[in-house]
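User: Predict the full complex structure for these chains.
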Amino acid sequence: MMDIRDHVKRFHVEVLPPKQDAEDLEERLEKFAVKYKRVLDAGYCACITDNAMGNLSFQGTELITELNLPVDPEGVMIHLNTFHTKRNLDEILATAVKLGIRYLLVVSGDGSPRLPKLRPSEIGCGGASVTSVELLDYIEREYPDRFVLGVAFNPYEPPEHEFEKLKNKIRAGARFVITQPIIGQNEVVDRLIEDFDIPVIVEAWMSKKLYLLSECVGYEIPEDVEYNPIKNLEILLKNYPQSGIYLALLNYKRQFPLLAGLSIGGSSSPVTGGVIT
Amino acid sequence: MRIVVCIKQVPATTDVSIDPETKRLIREGIEIMMNPFDTYALEEALLLKERYGGEVIALSMGPKKAEKTLREAIACGADRGVLLNDKLLAGSDTFATSYALAMAVKKIGNVDLVICGKQAIDGDTAQVGPGIAAHLGWPQVTYVSRVVDSSESFLVLERMYEDGYGVCSVKLPAVITVLKDINSPRVPTLRGRLLSRKVDVPIWDASFIKADLGKVGLDGSPTRVVKTRNPDARSKETVVLRGDPERVAMEFIRIVGQRGLF
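Assistant: Here is the predicted structure of the two-chain assembly.
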Protein backbone atom coordinates (compact mmCIF):
# COMPACT_ATOMS: atom_id res chain seq x y z
CA MET A 1 0.00 0.00 0.00
CA MET A 2 1.36 3.38 -1.02
CA ASP A 3 2.49 5.90 1.57
CA ILE A 4 0.04 8.79 1.85
CA ARG A 5 2.71 11.37 1.01
CA ASP A 6 3.43 9.54 -2.22
CA HIS A 7 -0.26 9.25 -2.97
CA VAL A 8 -0.99 12.95 -2.63
CA LYS A 9 1.79 13.96 -5.03
CA ARG A 10 -0.37 13.63 -8.09
CA PHE A 11 -3.16 15.42 -9.85
CA HIS A 12 -6.50 14.93 -8.15
CA VAL A 13 -9.09 15.57 -10.81
CA GLU A 14 -12.67 16.24 -9.79
CA VAL A 15 -15.22 14.22 -11.72
CA LEU A 16 -18.74 15.52 -11.14
CA PRO A 17 -21.48 12.87 -10.96
CA PRO A 18 -24.60 13.44 -13.06
CA LYS A 19 -27.39 15.26 -11.28
CA GLN A 20 -30.45 13.31 -10.17
CA ASP A 21 -32.79 15.36 -12.36
CA ALA A 22 -30.74 15.11 -15.56
CA GLU A 23 -33.10 14.57 -18.48
CA ASP A 24 -30.31 13.06 -20.59
CA LEU A 25 -29.17 10.77 -17.79
CA GLU A 26 -27.85 7.90 -19.92
CA GLU A 27 -25.72 10.30 -21.95
CA ARG A 28 -24.35 11.94 -18.82
CA LEU A 29 -23.55 8.58 -17.26
CA GLU A 30 -21.57 7.69 -20.34
CA LYS A 31 -19.66 10.97 -20.18
CA PHE A 32 -18.96 10.42 -16.51
CA ALA A 33 -17.55 6.96 -17.22
CA VAL A 34 -15.30 8.28 -20.01
CA LYS A 35 -13.91 11.07 -17.82
CA TYR A 36 -13.40 8.77 -14.86
CA LYS A 37 -11.50 6.21 -16.92
CA ARG A 38 -9.35 8.89 -18.56
CA VAL A 39 -8.31 10.19 -15.14
CA LEU A 40 -7.41 6.70 -13.96
CA ASP A 41 -5.61 5.81 -17.18
CA ALA A 42 -3.48 8.94 -16.82
CA GLY A 43 -2.37 7.80 -13.37
CA TYR A 44 -4.20 10.63 -11.60
CA CYS A 45 -6.76 10.35 -8.82
CA ALA A 46 -10.44 10.67 -9.76
CA CYS A 47 -12.28 12.62 -7.04
CA ILE A 48 -16.04 12.15 -7.05
CA THR A 49 -18.05 14.82 -5.29
CA ASP A 50 -20.98 14.29 -2.92
CA ASN A 51 -24.02 16.40 -3.84
CA ALA A 52 -21.75 19.40 -4.44
CA MET A 53 -23.39 22.77 -3.76
CA GLY A 54 -26.40 20.88 -2.42
CA ASN A 55 -27.36 19.67 -5.90
CA LEU A 56 -28.83 16.19 -5.75
CA SER A 57 -26.46 13.92 -7.66
CA PHE A 58 -25.54 10.28 -7.67
CA GLN A 59 -23.00 8.84 -5.27
CA GLY A 60 -19.55 7.81 -6.42
CA THR A 61 -19.94 4.33 -4.98
CA GLU A 62 -23.18 3.63 -6.84
CA LEU A 63 -21.82 5.07 -10.08
CA ILE A 64 -18.76 2.83 -9.92
CA THR A 65 -20.95 -0.18 -9.09
CA GLU A 66 -23.72 0.38 -11.63
CA LEU A 67 -21.39 1.42 -14.44
CA ASN A 68 -18.98 -1.39 -13.58
CA LEU A 69 -16.02 0.98 -13.47
CA PRO A 70 -12.54 -0.13 -12.43
CA VAL A 71 -11.13 0.97 -9.07
CA ASP A 72 -7.48 1.67 -8.42
CA PRO A 73 -7.16 2.14 -4.65
CA GLU A 74 -4.67 4.97 -5.24
CA GLY A 75 -6.65 6.43 -8.11
CA VAL A 76 -10.06 7.05 -6.57
CA MET A 77 -11.21 9.41 -3.87
CA ILE A 78 -14.81 9.92 -2.91
CA HIS A 79 -16.12 12.94 -1.10
CA LEU A 80 -18.45 12.25 1.80
CA ASN A 81 -20.48 14.85 3.63
CA THR A 82 -22.90 14.98 6.53
CA PHE A 83 -26.06 15.21 4.41
CA HIS A 84 -27.15 11.58 4.39
CA THR A 85 -29.42 9.29 6.29
CA LYS A 86 -27.47 7.03 8.62
CA ARG A 87 -28.50 4.09 6.54
CA ASN A 88 -27.28 5.72 3.34
CA LEU A 89 -24.00 6.65 5.01
CA ASP A 90 -23.44 3.05 6.08
CA GLU A 91 -24.31 1.82 2.59
CA ILE A 92 -21.79 4.19 1.03
CA LEU A 93 -19.05 3.14 3.45
CA ALA A 94 -19.77 -0.57 3.08
CA THR A 95 -19.76 -0.26 -0.71
CA ALA A 96 -16.53 1.72 -0.60
CA VAL A 97 -14.93 -1.10 1.38
CA LYS A 98 -16.25 -3.67 -1.07
CA LEU A 99 -14.95 -1.70 -4.04
CA GLY A 100 -11.52 -1.24 -2.48
CA ILE A 101 -11.79 2.55 -2.27
CA ARG A 102 -9.21 3.85 0.18
CA TYR A 103 -9.39 7.64 0.09
CA LEU A 104 -12.30 9.63 1.44
CA LEU A 105 -12.55 13.41 1.65
CA VAL A 106 -14.75 14.08 4.65
CA VAL A 107 -16.50 17.46 4.66
CA SER A 108 -19.50 19.02 6.35
CA GLY A 109 -20.99 19.72 2.92
CA ASP A 110 -23.75 21.81 1.46
CA GLY A 111 -27.31 20.92 2.34
CA SER A 112 -30.56 21.43 0.53
CA PRO A 113 -34.19 20.98 1.58
CA ARG A 114 -34.26 17.56 -0.08
CA LEU A 115 -31.09 16.27 1.56
CA PRO A 116 -31.36 14.56 4.94
CA LYS A 117 -28.89 15.59 7.63
CA LEU A 118 -27.16 13.14 9.92
CA ARG A 119 -28.20 13.52 13.54
CA PRO A 120 -25.58 13.34 16.31
CA SER A 121 -27.43 10.54 18.11
CA GLU A 122 -27.38 8.40 14.96
CA ILE A 123 -23.60 8.26 14.86
CA GLY A 124 -23.08 8.12 18.60
CA CYS A 125 -21.79 11.60 19.26
CA GLY A 126 -22.94 14.52 21.38
CA GLY A 127 -23.40 18.10 20.29
CA ALA A 128 -26.10 19.89 18.41
CA SER A 129 -25.11 18.90 14.90
CA VAL A 130 -22.83 16.66 12.89
CA THR A 131 -19.81 18.32 11.30
CA SER A 132 -16.88 16.75 9.48
CA VAL A 133 -15.21 16.14 12.86
CA GLU A 134 -18.04 13.91 14.11
CA LEU A 135 -18.22 12.15 10.76
CA LEU A 136 -14.46 11.48 10.80
CA ASP A 137 -14.77 10.14 14.31
CA TYR A 138 -17.62 7.82 13.29
CA ILE A 139 -15.76 6.44 10.27
CA GLU A 140 -12.60 5.87 12.30
CA ARG A 141 -14.61 4.09 14.97
CA GLU A 142 -16.62 1.89 12.60
CA TYR A 143 -13.88 1.24 10.06
CA PRO A 144 -10.58 1.55 11.96
CA ASP A 145 -7.61 1.95 9.61
CA ARG A 146 -9.72 0.97 6.64
CA PHE A 147 -9.78 4.38 4.96
CA VAL A 148 -7.38 7.25 4.54
CA LEU A 149 -9.43 10.27 5.52
CA GLY A 150 -8.87 13.76 4.23
CA VAL A 151 -10.39 17.08 5.19
CA ALA A 152 -10.87 20.54 3.74
CA PHE A 153 -8.84 23.57 4.77
CA ASN A 154 -9.87 27.13 4.00
CA PRO A 155 -6.96 29.59 4.05
CA TYR A 156 -9.38 32.49 3.62
CA GLU A 157 -11.01 31.95 7.01
CA PRO A 158 -9.44 33.60 10.07
CA PRO A 159 -6.24 31.49 10.31
CA GLU A 160 -6.19 30.77 14.04
CA HIS A 161 -9.78 29.55 13.93
CA GLU A 162 -9.11 27.43 10.85
CA PHE A 163 -5.96 25.92 12.38
CA GLU A 164 -7.90 25.10 15.53
CA LYS A 165 -10.55 23.37 13.44
CA LEU A 166 -7.84 21.46 11.61
CA LYS A 167 -6.38 20.24 14.90
CA ASN A 168 -9.80 18.87 15.84
CA LYS A 169 -10.07 17.18 12.46
CA ILE A 170 -6.63 15.61 12.81
CA ARG A 171 -7.50 14.38 16.29
CA ALA A 172 -10.63 12.78 14.79
CA GLY A 173 -8.63 10.93 12.15
CA ALA A 174 -7.76 13.27 9.26
CA ARG A 175 -4.56 12.20 7.50
CA PHE A 176 -4.39 14.62 4.60
CA VAL A 177 -5.71 18.07 3.73
CA ILE A 178 -7.16 19.65 0.60
CA THR A 179 -7.15 23.45 0.49
CA GLN A 180 -9.54 25.84 -1.14
CA PRO A 181 -8.24 27.18 -4.49
CA ILE A 182 -5.12 29.28 -4.11
CA ILE A 183 -3.48 31.65 -6.53
CA GLY A 184 0.30 31.50 -6.84
CA GLN A 185 1.24 31.19 -3.22
CA ASN A 186 -0.66 31.54 0.03
CA GLU A 187 0.90 32.44 3.36
CA VAL A 188 -1.63 30.52 5.40
CA VAL A 189 -1.09 27.38 3.31
CA ASP A 190 2.67 27.87 3.72
CA ARG A 191 2.13 27.97 7.48
CA LEU A 192 -0.04 24.88 7.31
CA ILE A 193 2.72 22.99 5.51
CA GLU A 194 5.35 24.33 7.91
CA ASP A 195 3.51 23.71 11.17
CA PHE A 196 1.50 20.57 10.53
CA ASP A 197 2.98 17.21 9.73
CA ILE A 198 0.23 16.29 7.31
CA PRO A 199 0.25 15.82 3.51
CA VAL A 200 -1.38 18.71 1.69
CA ILE A 201 -3.15 18.90 -1.65
CA VAL A 202 -3.61 22.46 -2.92
CA GLU A 203 -6.47 23.30 -5.19
CA ALA A 204 -5.78 25.24 -8.36
CA TRP A 205 -8.52 27.57 -9.63
CA MET A 206 -9.13 26.40 -13.18
CA SER A 207 -11.60 28.97 -14.45
CA LYS A 208 -10.44 32.09 -16.27
CA LYS A 209 -13.20 33.91 -14.40
CA LEU A 210 -11.26 34.69 -11.27
CA TYR A 211 -14.05 36.86 -9.88
CA LEU A 212 -16.07 33.68 -9.28
CA LEU A 213 -13.61 32.99 -6.47
CA SER A 214 -14.80 36.12 -4.65
CA GLU A 215 -17.23 34.35 -2.35
CA CYS A 216 -14.59 31.84 -1.33
CA VAL A 217 -11.84 34.36 -0.58
CA GLY A 218 -14.22 36.73 1.17
CA TYR A 219 -13.51 39.86 -0.85
CA GLU A 220 -14.65 41.15 -4.22
CA ILE A 221 -12.45 40.32 -7.20
CA PRO A 222 -13.27 42.63 -10.14
CA GLU A 223 -14.76 40.93 -13.18
CA ASP A 224 -12.17 42.40 -15.53
CA VAL A 225 -9.19 40.73 -13.85
CA GLU A 226 -7.45 38.56 -16.41
CA TYR A 227 -6.27 35.25 -15.07
CA ASN A 228 -4.41 32.36 -16.64
CA PRO A 229 -5.34 29.10 -14.86
CA ILE A 230 -2.68 26.99 -16.57
CA LYS A 231 0.04 29.47 -15.66
CA ASN A 232 -1.22 29.42 -12.06
CA LEU A 233 -1.10 25.64 -12.09
CA GLU A 234 2.51 25.73 -13.26
CA ILE A 235 3.39 28.14 -10.48
CA LEU A 236 1.67 26.03 -7.84
CA LEU A 237 3.60 22.99 -9.04
CA LYS A 238 6.83 24.88 -8.50
CA ASN A 239 5.84 26.51 -5.22
CA TYR A 240 4.38 23.39 -3.62
CA PRO A 241 6.58 20.56 -4.89
CA GLN A 242 5.75 18.29 -1.96
CA SER A 243 2.02 18.75 -2.36
CA GLY A 244 -0.60 17.29 -4.60
CA ILE A 245 -2.82 19.39 -6.82
CA TYR A 246 -6.62 19.31 -6.82
CA LEU A 247 -8.30 20.33 -10.05
CA ALA A 248 -11.92 21.05 -10.82
CA LEU A 249 -11.44 21.38 -14.55
CA LEU A 250 -13.78 23.89 -16.15
CA ASN A 251 -13.01 22.95 -19.70
CA TYR A 252 -12.23 19.28 -19.51
CA LYS A 253 -11.58 18.72 -23.20
CA ARG A 254 -9.09 21.55 -23.47
CA GLN A 255 -7.51 21.48 -20.03
CA PHE A 256 -7.12 17.76 -19.38
CA PRO A 257 -4.61 17.08 -22.19
CA LEU A 258 -2.46 19.96 -20.91
CA LEU A 259 -1.85 18.10 -17.64
CA ALA A 260 0.24 15.53 -19.48
CA GLY A 261 2.94 18.13 -20.01
CA LEU A 262 3.15 19.00 -16.33
CA SER A 263 4.76 17.09 -13.50
CA ILE A 264 4.49 17.27 -9.74
CA GLY A 265 7.62 17.72 -7.61
CA GLY A 266 9.51 20.27 -9.73
CA SER A 267 11.66 23.22 -8.68
CA SER A 268 11.55 24.05 -5.01
CA SER A 269 12.29 27.75 -5.46
CA PRO A 270 9.12 29.81 -4.92
CA VAL A 271 7.67 31.57 -7.94
CA THR A 272 5.60 34.71 -7.69
CA GLY A 273 3.57 36.75 -10.15
CA GLY A 274 2.69 35.96 -13.72
CA VAL A 275 -0.71 34.51 -12.97
CA ILE A 276 -2.90 37.55 -12.92
CA THR A 277 -2.17 39.64 -15.97
CA MET B 1 -49.02 -4.95 3.26
CA ARG B 2 -50.34 -2.98 0.31
CA ILE B 3 -49.77 0.72 0.85
CA VAL B 4 -50.92 3.59 -1.31
CA VAL B 5 -49.02 6.85 -0.99
CA CYS B 6 -50.79 9.93 -2.30
CA ILE B 7 -48.40 12.27 -4.01
CA LYS B 8 -49.02 15.74 -5.31
CA GLN B 9 -46.88 17.68 -7.73
CA VAL B 10 -46.40 21.23 -6.54
CA PRO B 11 -44.56 24.26 -7.96
CA ALA B 12 -40.85 24.13 -7.18
CA THR B 13 -40.89 27.89 -6.70
CA THR B 14 -42.73 30.46 -4.65
CA ASP B 15 -42.89 32.73 -7.68
CA VAL B 16 -46.35 31.67 -8.85
CA SER B 17 -49.32 33.56 -10.19
CA ILE B 18 -53.06 33.17 -9.75
CA ASP B 19 -55.28 33.05 -12.83
CA PRO B 20 -57.63 36.04 -12.38
CA GLU B 21 -60.48 34.16 -14.08
CA THR B 22 -60.32 30.76 -12.40
CA LYS B 23 -58.64 31.98 -9.18
CA ARG B 24 -56.34 28.98 -9.44
CA LEU B 25 -52.56 28.66 -9.58
CA ILE B 26 -51.12 29.02 -13.05
CA ARG B 27 -49.15 25.79 -13.29
CA GLU B 28 -48.14 25.93 -16.96
CA GLY B 29 -44.46 26.52 -17.54
CA ILE B 30 -43.49 26.15 -13.88
CA GLU B 31 -40.94 23.64 -12.65
CA ILE B 32 -42.66 21.08 -10.46
CA MET B 33 -41.53 18.84 -7.64
CA MET B 34 -42.98 16.28 -5.27
CA ASN B 35 -44.80 17.96 -2.41
CA PRO B 36 -42.16 17.89 0.36
CA PHE B 37 -44.55 16.43 2.95
CA ASP B 38 -45.30 13.56 0.57
CA THR B 39 -41.63 12.52 0.63
CA TYR B 40 -42.12 11.65 4.31
CA ALA B 41 -45.28 9.71 3.50
CA LEU B 42 -43.40 7.77 0.85
CA GLU B 43 -40.48 7.03 3.17
CA GLU B 44 -42.81 5.71 5.87
CA ALA B 45 -44.51 3.46 3.34
CA LEU B 46 -41.14 2.12 2.19
CA LEU B 47 -40.07 1.46 5.78
CA LEU B 48 -43.30 -0.46 6.47
CA LYS B 49 -42.84 -2.44 3.28
CA GLU B 50 -39.30 -3.34 4.33
CA ARG B 51 -40.68 -4.63 7.60
CA TYR B 52 -43.76 -6.49 6.38
CA GLY B 53 -43.23 -6.98 2.67
CA GLY B 54 -45.94 -6.14 0.17
CA GLU B 55 -46.24 -3.31 -2.23
CA VAL B 56 -46.03 0.47 -2.28
CA ILE B 57 -48.11 2.25 -4.91
CA ALA B 58 -47.66 5.95 -5.59
CA LEU B 59 -50.94 7.61 -6.57
CA SER B 60 -51.38 11.09 -7.97
CA MET B 61 -54.12 13.11 -9.60
CA GLY B 62 -53.11 15.86 -11.94
CA PRO B 63 -51.82 16.79 -15.36
CA LYS B 64 -49.73 14.38 -17.41
CA LYS B 65 -46.53 16.01 -16.23
CA ALA B 66 -47.35 14.73 -12.74
CA GLU B 67 -46.02 11.43 -14.07
CA LYS B 68 -42.57 12.87 -13.31
CA THR B 69 -43.25 12.90 -9.58
CA LEU B 70 -44.58 9.34 -9.73
CA ARG B 71 -41.36 8.26 -11.44
CA GLU B 72 -39.50 10.04 -8.66
CA ALA B 73 -41.41 7.91 -6.15
CA ILE B 74 -40.56 4.76 -8.10
CA ALA B 75 -36.89 5.84 -8.17
CA CYS B 76 -37.04 6.04 -4.38
CA GLY B 77 -38.43 2.51 -4.12
CA ALA B 78 -42.18 2.53 -4.81
CA ASP B 79 -43.20 -0.54 -6.80
CA ARG B 80 -45.45 1.29 -9.21
CA GLY B 81 -47.31 4.48 -9.88
CA VAL B 82 -50.82 5.36 -10.98
CA LEU B 83 -51.81 8.73 -12.42
CA LEU B 84 -55.39 9.94 -12.39
CA ASN B 85 -55.69 12.22 -15.36
CA ASP B 86 -58.89 13.25 -17.04
CA LYS B 87 -60.26 16.63 -18.04
CA LEU B 88 -63.44 15.62 -16.21
CA LEU B 89 -61.39 15.73 -13.00
CA ALA B 90 -59.96 19.19 -13.68
CA GLY B 91 -61.04 21.93 -11.29
CA SER B 92 -61.77 19.50 -8.46
CA ASP B 93 -61.70 21.00 -4.98
CA THR B 94 -60.45 19.04 -1.97
CA PHE B 95 -63.78 17.20 -1.61
CA ALA B 96 -63.84 16.09 -5.25
CA THR B 97 -60.10 15.33 -5.28
CA SER B 98 -60.32 13.14 -2.19
CA TYR B 99 -63.36 11.39 -3.69
CA ALA B 100 -61.47 10.62 -6.91
CA LEU B 101 -58.42 9.41 -4.99
CA ALA B 102 -60.63 7.23 -2.78
CA MET B 103 -62.19 5.69 -5.88
CA ALA B 104 -58.70 5.00 -7.23
CA VAL B 105 -57.77 3.32 -3.94
CA LYS B 106 -60.86 1.12 -4.30
CA LYS B 107 -59.87 0.35 -7.88
CA ILE B 108 -56.35 -0.66 -6.79
CA GLY B 109 -58.02 -3.00 -4.33
CA ASN B 110 -56.90 -4.82 -1.17
CA VAL B 111 -55.21 -1.69 0.16
CA ASP B 112 -54.24 -1.86 3.84
CA LEU B 113 -53.02 1.66 4.34
CA VAL B 114 -53.15 5.05 2.63
CA ILE B 115 -50.43 7.51 3.64
CA CYS B 116 -50.50 11.20 2.77
CA GLY B 117 -48.29 14.10 3.69
CA LYS B 118 -49.96 16.36 6.26
CA GLN B 119 -50.75 18.90 3.54
CA ALA B 120 -49.57 20.21 0.19
CA ILE B 121 -47.37 23.28 0.25
CA ASP B 122 -49.36 25.01 -2.48
CA GLY B 123 -52.94 24.63 -1.23
CA ASP B 124 -52.12 24.19 2.47
CA THR B 125 -55.58 22.78 3.19
CA ALA B 126 -54.65 19.47 4.89
CA GLN B 127 -58.10 18.24 3.81
CA VAL B 128 -57.37 15.63 1.15
CA GLY B 129 -56.03 12.89 3.48
CA PRO B 130 -59.02 13.12 5.86
CA GLY B 131 -61.30 13.39 2.81
CA ILE B 132 -60.01 10.12 1.39
CA ALA B 133 -60.68 8.42 4.73
CA ALA B 134 -64.21 9.85 4.82
CA HIS B 135 -64.99 8.72 1.27
CA LEU B 136 -63.61 5.25 1.98
CA GLY B 137 -65.32 5.04 5.37
CA TRP B 138 -61.97 4.15 6.95
CA PRO B 139 -60.49 5.38 10.24
CA GLN B 140 -57.94 8.14 9.98
CA VAL B 141 -55.07 9.43 12.07
CA THR B 142 -53.71 12.84 11.11
CA TYR B 143 -50.48 14.66 11.98
CA VAL B 144 -48.60 11.46 12.76
CA SER B 145 -45.13 12.17 14.12
CA ARG B 146 -43.99 8.63 14.92
CA VAL B 147 -44.93 5.01 14.37
CA VAL B 148 -44.70 3.60 17.88
CA ASP B 149 -45.64 0.04 17.02
CA SER B 150 -46.97 -1.76 14.02
CA SER B 151 -48.21 -5.06 12.70
CA GLU B 152 -49.94 -6.13 9.53
CA SER B 153 -53.33 -5.41 11.09
CA PHE B 154 -52.84 -2.31 13.26
CA LEU B 155 -50.62 0.70 13.87
CA VAL B 156 -49.83 2.48 17.10
CA LEU B 157 -49.11 6.08 16.25
CA GLU B 158 -47.94 9.19 17.99
CA ARG B 159 -49.80 12.22 16.72
CA MET B 160 -49.30 15.89 17.30
CA TYR B 161 -51.94 18.12 18.82
CA GLU B 162 -51.80 21.86 19.17
CA ASP B 163 -50.56 21.53 22.73
CA GLY B 164 -48.60 18.30 22.71
CA TYR B 165 -48.54 14.71 21.54
CA GLY B 166 -50.79 11.72 22.04
CA VAL B 167 -50.60 8.04 21.17
CA CYS B 168 -53.43 6.13 19.53
CA SER B 169 -53.86 2.80 17.82
CA VAL B 170 -55.73 2.25 14.62
CA LYS B 171 -56.93 -0.89 12.90
CA LEU B 172 -56.14 -1.32 9.24
CA PRO B 173 -57.29 -0.44 6.66
CA ALA B 174 -56.81 3.20 7.54
CA VAL B 175 -55.61 6.55 6.26
CA ILE B 176 -52.84 8.45 7.98
CA THR B 177 -51.24 11.83 7.30
CA VAL B 178 -47.69 12.36 8.43
CA LEU B 179 -45.46 15.18 9.66
CA LYS B 180 -41.87 15.73 8.70
CA ASP B 181 -40.67 14.60 12.15
CA ILE B 182 -41.56 11.03 11.30
CA ASN B 183 -38.47 10.06 9.30
CA SER B 184 -35.66 11.19 7.02
CA PRO B 185 -36.69 10.59 3.42
CA ARG B 186 -34.20 8.72 1.28
CA VAL B 187 -33.00 10.10 -2.03
CA PRO B 188 -33.31 7.98 -5.16
CA THR B 189 -30.52 5.59 -6.03
CA LEU B 190 -29.02 5.41 -9.50
CA ARG B 191 -30.46 1.92 -9.92
CA GLY B 192 -33.89 3.18 -8.89
CA ARG B 193 -33.64 6.19 -11.15
CA LEU B 194 -32.73 4.07 -14.17
CA LEU B 195 -35.57 1.66 -13.40
CA SER B 196 -38.06 4.49 -12.98
CA ARG B 197 -37.30 5.75 -16.47
CA LYS B 198 -38.28 2.43 -18.01
CA VAL B 199 -41.45 1.45 -16.16
CA ASP B 200 -44.90 2.16 -17.48
CA VAL B 201 -47.01 4.55 -15.40
CA PRO B 202 -50.66 3.82 -16.23
CA ILE B 203 -53.03 6.73 -16.62
CA TRP B 204 -56.51 6.16 -15.26
CA ASP B 205 -59.51 8.29 -16.17
CA ALA B 206 -62.76 8.98 -14.32
CA SER B 207 -64.65 6.16 -15.98
CA PHE B 208 -61.90 3.63 -15.20
CA ILE B 209 -62.21 4.31 -11.47
CA LYS B 210 -66.01 4.30 -11.81
CA ALA B 211 -66.25 7.83 -10.44
CA ASP B 212 -69.67 9.47 -10.14
CA LEU B 213 -69.21 12.41 -12.51
CA GLY B 214 -71.45 14.51 -10.30
CA LYS B 215 -68.80 14.32 -7.58
CA VAL B 216 -65.69 15.28 -9.54
CA GLY B 217 -64.38 18.25 -11.47
CA LEU B 218 -65.54 21.83 -11.11
CA ASP B 219 -69.23 20.88 -11.20
CA GLY B 220 -68.79 18.20 -8.56
CA SER B 221 -66.94 20.55 -6.22
CA PRO B 222 -69.03 22.07 -3.44
CA THR B 223 -66.53 24.89 -2.84
CA ARG B 224 -65.44 27.75 -5.10
CA VAL B 225 -62.54 30.16 -4.86
CA VAL B 226 -64.37 33.45 -5.34
CA LYS B 227 -61.60 35.87 -4.53
CA THR B 228 -57.89 35.84 -3.82
CA ARG B 229 -55.61 38.57 -2.60
CA ASN B 230 -52.01 38.85 -1.59
CA PRO B 231 -51.31 39.10 2.12
CA ASP B 232 -50.44 42.56 3.39
CA ALA B 233 -46.75 43.29 3.07
CA ARG B 234 -44.95 42.97 6.35
CA SER B 235 -43.55 46.23 7.58
CA LYS B 236 -39.77 46.18 7.73
CA GLU B 237 -37.72 48.55 9.78
CA THR B 238 -33.97 48.68 10.15
CA VAL B 239 -32.63 50.08 13.37
CA VAL B 240 -28.91 50.84 13.44
CA LEU B 241 -27.45 50.97 16.92
CA ARG B 242 -24.25 52.94 17.30
CA GLY B 243 -22.04 54.05 20.14
CA ASP B 244 -20.59 52.43 23.20
CA PRO B 245 -20.70 48.62 22.71
CA GLU B 246 -22.06 47.98 26.19
CA ARG B 247 -24.88 50.46 25.77
CA VAL B 248 -25.59 49.15 22.27
CA ALA B 249 -25.80 45.61 23.63
CA MET B 250 -28.19 46.70 26.38
CA GLU B 251 -30.34 48.56 23.88
CA PHE B 252 -30.38 45.51 21.60
CA ILE B 253 -31.54 43.31 24.48
CA ARG B 254 -34.22 45.86 25.37
CA ILE B 255 -35.56 46.00 21.80
CA VAL B 256 -35.70 42.24 21.21
CA GLY B 257 -37.19 41.77 24.67
CA GLN B 258 -39.86 44.36 23.92
CA ARG B 259 -40.77 42.48 20.72
CA GLY B 260 -40.97 39.17 22.50
CA LEU B 261 -38.04 37.73 20.59
CA PHE B 262 -35.87 37.09 23.59
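Chain A has a mean pLDDT of 90.
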